[in-house]
């Protein structure tokens, strides 16, 4: 295996990433953050399974209050996912070891304020409270400026966005950061991380295929990306993002360690690209933002219902919340994003309405059949 990139050392709690340190496997709590007992227990379960870093989503002041109590109940190294609530950083930073922000979401929040000012604020908070930062770029939530500039090159948009945010932090003298470039397509993850690592070999990279879906497909997609990257010396932390019921969430960690062990021992199982001429179901990993736990069951039902279409190149995205759902279903042929009582159905960026959970499968089948018929007629 090629020697790993000479990335700089970044401390996250009691683990160190980069600088040829062992690759750290991490995961994310799927319980509701305000359920302190459940979230603390899951953070400990993930830590005990081998997660060096455990991520928690925080979207409100009540979540912050819960986080303070969770911190007392777990020894896991905690990362917080700010999503669109970047101003919560100063209240969560005293309780965590790393702050993750998404450049696309940061752009959309307080659009009248320059992005550089927001980054300066986050760097100041992180520095004051001894926190690392992750710049978490996601192909499905790019800001409009990069979308317009790289409309034919979504991977280029990811790489450029990450590079610009690295430069902002570098200019501020804040170098305790890592970068992730994620997509639901393993090929884009591979290309994006290769391109970024060539441009900035000093920056530690967190690897993952976002919305990889359910096992075993989700593990296969992730394995494809990790084998191609880790074997080339790229990657300092990893996550296997799977759609799983809460009690099974530690399986993400187990899968991550298994893939890394296999790569280290030369056991490569899935070097070929994930097939693009077959049905592809992507679904986000269950997390605390899920507003109805029927989402997980729905994702499994969608997979079963659509097996008859497995030889058709159709992408169906099943998302569990209002944060990722609206934007990250745009590139799918058909998208479902789940609310508390209804599932929003989309065809590309076009909304087809909202349907109760007990009716959405039938409505989805109509659209799948229509898509198959339209393509057959076009050919």
Order of helices and strands: EEEHEHEHEHHEHHEHEHEHEHEHEEEH
Write out the CATH superfamily name of the largest domain. Answer: Dihydropteroate synthase-like
By secondary-structure content and strand pairing, the structural class works out as: alpha/beta
Radius of gyration: 20 Å
Q: Segments where pLDDT lies below 50 for 5+ residues?
A: none
Total domain count? 2
Beta strands, count: 15
Helix content: 40-55%
- Strand order across the biggest sheet? 3-4-5-6-7-8-9-10
Q: Distance between the terminal alpha carbons, to the nearest Å?
A: 45 Å
Can you walk through the features of this model?
By secondary structure, this protein is an alpha/beta fold. It has 2 domains: 255 residues, TIM Barrel (Alpha-Beta Barrel), CATH 3.20.20; 89 residues, Sulfite Reductase Hemoprotein, domain 1 (2-Layer Sandwich). It is 40% helix and 18% strand. The protein is built from 13 helices and 15 strands. Strands 3-4-5-6-7-8-9-10 form an 8-stranded parallel β-barrel, surrounded by 6 helices. It has a 5-stranded mixed sheet with strand order 11-12-13-14-15. The chain has a two-stranded antiparallel ribbon with strand order 1-2. A hairpin with a 2-residue loop joins strand 14 and strand 15. Helix 7 runs parallel beside helix 8, helix 8 runs parallel beside helix 9 and helix 9 packs parallel to helix 10. The model has no long low-confidence stretch (mean pLDDT 91).
